[in-house]
Each structure stands twice: as C-alpha cells, then as structure tokens.
Amino acid sequence: MLVGLAVDLMRCAGRALRPWRPEKPYLRARTISHLAWVGADSLAIVSVIAACVGIILSLQAAIQLEKVGAMSYVANLVGFSLVTELGPLLTCLILSGRAGAAFTAEIATMRISEEIDALAVMGIDPVRFLVWPKFVAMAVMAPLLTIWADAVGITAGGIFSSLVLGLSGKVYFNQIAYFLGFKDLLSGLVKSAGFGVAITVISCWQGFLAREGAADVGRRTTAAVVQSIFVMILLDLFFTALNYIFR
Amino acid sequence: MSGRLESPDIALSDVSVGYGERTVLSGVTTVLPGGKVSVILGGSGCGKSTLLRNIIGLVPIQGGRIVLGGHDMAEIAEAERLDIRRRMGVLFQDGALLGSLRLGENIALPLREHTELTDSLIEEIVRLKLKLVGLADFMDYFPSELSGGMRKRAGLARAMALDPAVLLCDEPTSGLDPITAADMDQLILELRATFDMTIVVVTHDLESLYAIADHVVVLSAGRMLFQGPLARLSASDDPFIQQFLARQPSRESRILGGSWSAMVDSRRESAVGRG
Ligand SMILES: Nc1ncnc2c1ncn2[C@@H]1O[C@H](COP(=O)(O)OP(=O)(O)OP(=O)(O)O)[C@@H](O)[C@H]1O
Ligand SMILES: [Mg+2]
Predict the structure, then answer these.
(1) What is the pLDDT of residues A131-147, one digit of tens each?
(2) A209, A1 in Cβ contact below 8 A?
(3) Residues 6 or more apart from A52 whose CB is under 8 A from it?
(4) Between helices A132-160 and A87-95, what is the axis angle to 10°?
(5) Ligand 1 pocket test, candidate residues B46, B171, B205, most atoms within 8 A of CB
(6) Cα–Cα distances in Å, from B83 out to A18, A111, B78, B169?
(7) Are the C-beta atoms of residues B106 and B159 closer than 8 Å to each other?
(8) pLDDT band at B3 (very low <50, low <70, confident <90, very high)
(9) Span B1-87+204-262: which CATH code?
(10) What is the least distance, in Å, from the CA of B189 to any CA of chain A?
(11) Domain residues of chain B, as ranges?
C-alpha cells in the first residue's frame, strides 16, 4: 500500500513533468490552492516559534560564550543551529501537526464516506486528485517556510542580542554574513524538503488506511503525526550524518 | 448484442464476492437486462452494496464472471475497463459527494476530467443536471449544507453527468420521506424511458420495488434466492421471500431475540380473544 502510493506519486510526477501534455486546468488549480493553503496556514505560528527559538538560542549561546569572552560568536551559534537544524525541524514539526494532520483527516473521512470510491468510478485517479497537490505543496512550501523561519529567528536573535546582551547589531549580522555559507542553507533546505515529502506520504497513506467509523479518523490522524515526527528525526539523523561525512 | 455499450446487458454467472478471505455472497447467476430496471433486494448486510461494488469493478470478484455488454470485465485491458467505467454512473448509498467542493463543482468534476468543454458549457450542463433532480437553486451549497435526501438526489445528478449507459444506484430511497422517495422512483422511470439506460437499483424498499422493477434479484444469507421478472416474484414459494414481501419479522428475530414475534403473537391473540 505504501509502496503503491510511492509508485503512483512517481507516475504523477512523470505526468506533471511532460510539457507536451499539460495537466488539466482544474488539477493545476487544486495544486495552487493547496500551495496557498499550506503556506498561509502555518505562516503565523512558524514566525512566532522561530522568533522565540532565535531568542532562546542567543541567550543560551551568551551564557557559554560570555565565559570565554567570545560574545560575537553568539551570531554563529544562532545562525548555524537555526539554518542547519532547528529551522527545518521546527517548521516541519508544525507542518506535520497542522497540514499533515489535516491531510490524514481529509482522506480518512473521504475513504469512509465512499468519496474515494466515487472518484475512482468517475475515472479520476485518487492519488493524482488528492495526494499529488499536497505533495507539491509540501515539497515547495516546507523549504520556503524554512527560509522564512531562518530569517525570522536570526533577526529576532539579533535584535534581542543588541537590546539585551549588548552585542552590536552590526557585528552580529556581519558575523552571520561571513560565517554562514550557502552550503549550510542548502543542507537545511534539502532536509526540510525531505521532511515535507515524508509528512505528505505518511499522512496520506494513513488516511487511505482508514476503514469503518469516525473513530478511525482520529486514530489515523494521531498515528500519522507520531509516525511523521519519528521518521523526520530519523531522516534528520541521516541527513546530518551525510553532511558531516561530506563536510 | 456483443460489444454494444448502449443499454448493455449485465450478465453475472456464478459470481461470488467478498473481502479478503471472507466470502459474503456466492452463486449469483442472472442477466440484468439492458434498458430495463433491475432491483437487487435483500436484508441489511447481505452483501448488496458489495455486489454493486463488484459490478462497478471497485472490488475484484472472488469467482465467476461478470460480462457487461459482451465485455468480460476480468479479461479486458485496463484501458478498456476505464472506458467502460466511464459509461457507468453510480449513486452511492450516502451520495458520496466530495465534501470540499460545492454542489456545482461536484457535478462538473467528471465533465472537467473527461471532456474538453469550456467552463460556460460545463456550467450549462451542470445546471441542467441539477434541474433534473430539482436542485437547480443549490449549486453553490456545500454537501454538508444539504439534507440527506438532497445529497442523494445530487449524487444522482453527478452520476448522470456524462450521460451514462448504465446507472447503478445503492438504496436511492432509503431515508427519504414517502413523497421524496416516490419522486426518486419517478425519476428513475423517466431516466429509463428517456435515455434507454440499463438501471440497477439496490433497495429494501418494497414500495419502490413494485414501482420501478422490471427484473428482480433476491439475496439472502450469502446466496441468491430468486431472479426473474417482477411478475414471477410473488409466485415464489420461498419462505424468506414470502416473509420479506409480507414484511413479517423472522421467527428467531435477530434484533429482539425472538421477543418481537412473541409480542406480536400475544397482541394478536389478545385482540382475537377480545373480538
Ligand atoms: N470494506 C469492507 N471490508 C470487509 N468487509 C466488509 C466491507 N464492507 C462490507 N463488509 C462486510 O460485507 C458484508 C456485506 O456488506 P454490504 O455493505 O454489502 O451489505 P448491504 O447488503 O449493502 O447492507 P445495507 O443494506 O445495510 O447497506 C457485511 O457483513 C460487512 O461486514
Ligand atoms: Mg449497502
């Protein structure tokens, strides 16, 4: 079932990528509305959490770096932790709880009320109709939201450092610009795209597994969120190890 | 008749259906005649919806053959099967409208997928189909804003969107008030008369059985008890059919553990005693 879903998604990707026969307009419209929804749905909470984490990181860095008189390195720690690790992870944790859970609930409900059967009878591939737009939306929006979270977190950390820790803003942002490489940013974005894809596949798969009764919708949703988080941490470990080997 | 997809016959021979290891129904042999209304009758949970799902091809049959207009559904290629399925309209038990789309969009969906019609033409067709089921004013409503009966009628409008050759309805009248149910029956008869469709209706509503059926299949306890024209049904001497048609409770009533029959008997006796 999970393998079947992956194969179907690859088929959808193949279909979406052939320029000589573009997708039906109504399917393209669905993808666009999913993109907008996933982005808008999580933007506010991602911003708030990223700002808080930026401040937390700068405080914690300050406690350690004060001792060795290297306060300007607060910027390095905040920037590096956010961009390579916490930005992608926190953004996608939120996405799994909001978008992912919504995906599972939607598909599970449709399964139970025979809506998926109805799609199949109408000759509309449920994976292309339901999963593909979510897949595209998450693969695109997870990295974009991550960039946004990185920016908000770094900025919040910088403002906090200059207001409270007495580190000049100029030094902070110079330090960021000098030490944070494009490679760091890229590794974070690859992670978040991977997380986004994993969340979508797991959430939709759990939705399709739903059987009878409304209680199953709740069970499947919980399972989807827990499994998404678990798989994300495993993927994180994998990506970070890769990053270390090829540093 | 072979290859014809205008009002095709649906021939079932020794069909058995079920889920996984479990067989729900076996030994179903009948021809649901083209251009007529066939009614599949049977108690709750006897496998009517399952049989319908097998005819549609949503669930693979466990044994036997289903031949639709000369095409053996198990032997034809996937592309041809999709083609045939496109000529089928299905009304699911609860309408199965997509909850995230407005009514008009629901009915436009098959048109958008399978035709290259312009938006304004599609809207025109949608309006027409909704008018057919008396829901022309509800195009912009979400399914959750409609009553159960309205959802069923809307499901019928969607099933009719591509002018199918075969229409399959799962309990179109259950849960409707008698007037709306009669309207639904009327609609089915009109569809048969106007479009010469092959119509299969699953039901346990006796009123609509007598109103619409040309051909009847009775299912019970995992097998087929009767198949044939409506006129022959009442002549059947099968006790289950007699009981079903007379709306009598079963002796060992599953619901009240037999106490229902006992209660009816005692009421009858006391009434007789008084009289
Ligand atoms: N998806 C499924 N997986 C496994 N078993 C199922 C499934 N759907 C139905 N069944 C079983 O198949 C049997 C027949 O179910 P079906 O829905 O076909 O009955 P029905 O005749 O349509 O009943 P009703 O009149 O109540 O709609 C039931 O015993 C049910 O438990
Ligand atoms: Mg049923």
Answers:
(1) 999 999 999 999 999 99
(2) yes
(3) A156
(4) 130
(5) B46
(6) 23, 24, 9, 20
(7) no
(8) very low
(9) 3.40.50.300
(10) 23
(11) 1-87+204-262
Residue tagged 């998604």 (tokens): A9
Q: By CA distance, what is A129's nearest residue in B?
A: B113
Does the pLDDT at position A219 exceed 80? yes
**DSSP codes joined into one string, chain B:** -TT--SS--EEEEEEEEEETTEEEEEEEEEEE-TTSEEEEEE-TTSSHHHHHHHHHTSS--SEEEEEETTEETTTS-HHHHHHHHHTEEEE-TT----TTS-HHHHHHHHHHHH----HHHHHHHHHHHHHHTT-GGGTT--GGGS-HHHHHHHHHHHHTTT--SEEEEESTTTTS-HHHHHHHHHHHHHHHHHH--EEEEEE--HHHHHHH-SEEEEEETTEEEEEEEHHHHTT---HHHHHHHTTPPPTT-TTTTTHHHHHHHHHHHHHHHH-
Q: Which residues surround ligand 2, an ion (CB under 5 A)?
A: B 49
Question: Does the beta carbon of B49 sit less than 6 angstroms from any atom of ligand 1?
Answer: yes
Site of tokens 């304004």 = B120
Q: Report the sign of the C-alpha dihedral through residues B207, B96, B124, B56, in that order.
A: negative
Q: Which chain B positions have a beta carbon within 8 Å of A24's beta carbon?
A: 112-113
Token pair for residue B240?
A: 């289950």
From chain A, the residues in CB contact with B157 under 8 A are none
pTM: 0.85
Tell me, what's the ipTM?
A: 0.81
Please name the residues between 22 and 51 in chain A that touch chain B, using a CB distance below 8 Å: 24-26
Residue B18 CA to ligand 1 center (angstroms) comes to: 9
The domains of chain A are located at: 2-6+25-55+77-155+179-245
Per-residue pLDDT reduced to its tens digit, B78-123 = 888 888 888 899 999 888 999 999 999 999 999 998 888 899 999 9
Instruction: Specify the DSSP class assigned to residue A247.
Output: -
Mutate to test the interface with B, among A11, A26, A34, A114 (most CBs of B within 10 A): A114
